[in-house]
Amino acid sequence: MKIFFAVKDGFVIVALLLCACSLFPEEVSTQDEWREEEYRLAGTAKDIDYLSDKEKEVYYYINLARINPPLFARTFAKEYDGEPGYLKGYAWDARKATLLDELKAMKPLPVLMPDSALYASALCFAREGGRLGIVGHGRDQTGCTVEYSAECCHYGGSQNGLSVVMSLLIDAGENNGALGHRRILLNDSYIKLGVSIQPHALYGSNTVLDFGR
Fold first, then answer.
1. How many Å apart are CA 87 and CA 77, to the nearest integer?
2. Does the model's pTM come out above 0.90?
3. Are 167 and 185 within 8 A, CB to CB?
4. What is the pLDDT of residue 11?
5. More reliable by pLDDT, 182 or 10
6. What confidence score (pLDDT) does residue 21 get?
7. Cβ neighbourhood burial of 88 (10 Å; 0-12, 13-18, 19+)
8. Exposure class string for 2-41: b at 16+ Cβ within 10 A, else e
9. pLDDT score for 3
């Protein structure tokens, strides 16, 4: 597995936007420490018809981590051990430990809201980058414009929402020492998100997450 990130300078005022909806209750029914209101707030993408169920899951799990970081650490992150048969990245165990410590000490962050322009940006790059087998953020060959403030890309695996989010939060990999993906997902200046999951010529599938302020 390889994951990458990029950040483009930009600045706007941060706002907290909430959505009252329910999403994936079957996936969290055993996590009985969570309140129903927190589930509803996390489901900002539930009714967005241009998103697939797996794309909606990405919003859902990032938002749970942002709504209640210490509880996410206890109920999802602590027991996560990667996908079955999937090779863990460089320093996986050590970085998971730092993630748990960081989440336990964090205060709540604004939820991420779906954004159609960011979705179009993510869709274009996931589709064209996947077709060309691109790894990283270079869009020169794709015809895709840069519309984001920050971007994360995840390659391979099942691309279910929890695995994508946990891989980016743990941020294992020899070239990921700065934990850039984690810094993006847990950054309170980002309040908008576009997510697209598409086939990839080298890794089978890829998820592109484009964030906005």
1. 18
2. no
3. no
4. 34
5. 182
6. 37
7. middle
8. bbbbbeeeeeeeeeeeebeeebbeebbeeeeebeeebbbb
9. 52
